[in-house]
Design goal:
heterodimer, A: alpha/beta, nine-stranded mixed sheet, four-stranded antiparallel sheet, 9 helices, B: alpha+beta, Nuclear Transport Factor 2, Chain: A, Archaeosine Trna-guanine Transglycosylase, Chain: A, domain 4, 2 domains, five-stranded antiparallel sheet, 11 strands, 31% helix, binds S-adenosylmethionine
Chain lengths: 308, 182
Amino acid sequence: MSQNNIPMEFIERWKSFYGKSQTESIIHNLRQNEPRIIVPNLLKTNIPNLVLQLESNGFKFKKINEFNGLIVTFEPFNIVSTPEYLSGMFSIQALSSLIPPLSLQPSSNSIVADLTASPGIKTSLLAQQMNNRGTIIAIEKSSKRIPALKANLIRMGVLNTIILNLDSVLFPKLDIQVDHILLDAPCSGTGLKLTKNKRLRPRILNDIFRLAKQQEALIEKAWEQLKPNGTLVYSTCSLEPEEGEVQIENFLELHKNEVVLLSIPFDIGSSGSNTNWKTPLNTQLVKTKRIFPKLGYDGFFTAILKKR
Amino acid sequence: MKLFKQLTKDETNQVETTINQILDSDAMTIILKRKMLIKIKGDRNDVYLVLKEDISLFERLSSKLPEKSFSIEHARIKLGFFIHEKFLIGIESLTLLSPLTRKRISLDTKNTQKFIYGKDIVINTISLQKQIEHLEENTTIMVFSDNNIPLGYAKIFSKEKNAWLQNLVDIGIFLRSEKSAF
Ligand SMILES: C[S@@+](CC[C@H](N)C(=O)[O-])C[C@H]1O[C@@H](n2cnc3c(N)ncnc32)[C@H](O)[C@@H]1O
């Protein structure tokens, strides 16, 4: 199967959730080659300084209005071998990765749990918002994925994080209450651009149900440890409502009196309530975001849940 | 070994002295008034600088979770590690220590590239010589690019008329061995 082939099973599903023309746009955008996008690390630099330094070495950029992103338009040599990259002055990432941590808005004295942390792109964005103060407990279940998490956090100059190799369903056992939780849950990844997605095969459809169960268990366990008035951001890089809108719908149903959804503070993407599902979705889902793939963005879902 | 353990007095002294010497100040002594040094379980005897409050979190971890189910992999700021009872500075300390140091050398673009490829630097220009002439042999210093990016640590060596910086550790490690070094 060529890389650009998207199985019909997915196309039919997306049409039923998002309509024909949105699905055509999804297919078109998933197939695009993604340029390199860099985002400055505010712990170490700012845009003008970073641009000045890299331009003096021959790199060229185009600014993206949202999220301080820069598209690399000319790369005289591999940008990851520059002292600027190696000293953590910027990261290379899809802009969609900024939405969950920036939606969480932790402060410099927050205690934050990042329950699915590796490779740490979002952990580092949390540390930037916290000005490297407070505490982040970054949890990752896979020991194989720990070295990349450590290397990224160290390179990016993150100083406020404790990394645990642990299954986050055991998080409540730690018996600590936290102010904010990021749950960037393991998912089918169907929203990822095809150049970085080796998995878009029909059999992934079977995984959606299994993954949705895992995600549900993780949100439930996370919720137990959230302080009253605390917030939890749930996100997945999936286009499947079972891993997004429906997950939140079910959670709202189970925890009616304990939770309110907060609006995602960015004017981007569509509202989760526009997604067609078998039954009408809870009206609160208007506050969630369904992000479709486009330049700089993977397909994505994000919701902010506040504990009453 | 427990999940973590506080450094002994001797070990603490060694870390404090080594870092103060690298910085040419007593900054580490001041830092240690409010923070503490621990090792966490692991075969390299890594040294971490943590907050006093962190200790209760770690104690809770050990008491609440079965030991096999988890490990602490990193705690706030890693400074370096002990090998054969000797403390060696690690690349992880660069973010904390680079704004504090007075013992430093800046390299031009060509030498910067060489240094972050893990190479030693020959002191073969007056500008390099001037920057280190007041320092003794075997001194560990911090190395920067000419636009002030911290690149790593080096030791000054000389033999007859030649002097060079021996690369101890540099940020190129993130490219060369992201998977194995951390
Ligand atoms: C979508 S990725 C997270 C990406 C990361 N948040 C970032 O921005 O760089 C999901 C991660 O969760 C980890 N994971 C999956 N199940 C987990 C669990 N039960 N507990 C902790 N981590 C888990 C996976 O190994 C994977 O590294």
